[in-house]
Predict the 3D structure of the following.
Amino acid sequence: MSETLTVGAAQFGSRIGDLDANFEEHHRWVSQARGLDLLVFPELSLVGHYGAENLLDVTMKRHDPRLIELSRAAGDTILIVGFVEEGPAAQFYNAAGVYKNGKLIYIHRKINLPSYGKLIETKYYAQGRFVDTQEITEDWRLGLLICADLWNPALVHLAFLHGATLLVSPISSGVEAVGEAFDNPSGWTATMHFYSMMYGAPSIMVNRTGPEEDLNFWGGSRILDPFGHPLAIAGQDPELITAELDYAQVRRARALLPTVRDSNIGLVEREMNRLNDRLGVPDIIRDDD
């Protein structure tokens, strides 16, 4: 038997640092998306790309009542919302929270913080430290990574080794972000196709739209099937795109191309340990906070 998942991507532009206005905007998209199993918002959807310029005015704890209220308004729909999370000891993270029925069920803190071109995230955010996944249903397990996390293929590989059957990436991609010689729209098109095709998993990429200071966000949000074929692609304007994902296709794709099965974790672990020894890298003490 096949299990389907109805998903949506809400593409729009946030108001820089205006939490009240952005929460109102989120509620409007939630109203439009009733009946979906999963709705994904762009990276930092509640504060805007440049919201961290007023860092202390836009941070939220992960259980902020406004986040809980938004999730309750969505009912059974799972929401993935972007915000600046204030963690313990006044550490601030570019985070994506996963909420359902008024409860936080998972959170990802961005790991690969870009500091090149016009991107200066290391100025504001602490670095996330873990790649994990979250079960949505018996068959669907969410692999959630934020924007530049996908430009470190090792992080994506880890998500799939942790059992992800769906890759979700909220992004904040401006045309000028990296530089004139780098084509961001084409880059993201190739990246999302590659990961879905390579790992036999549907993927959802959600970008913002419109101008913010010196960047122009090109939209282009998309939902792909586990063979890398587009099921829905947004234009450059605010838009809600939706698609139905079929787990039977994941089974078929992974039977044809067993990337996860053949990943050879033992070899990778051995080679990483050998590389650490060669470079003199000290052991890392894990902190599960």
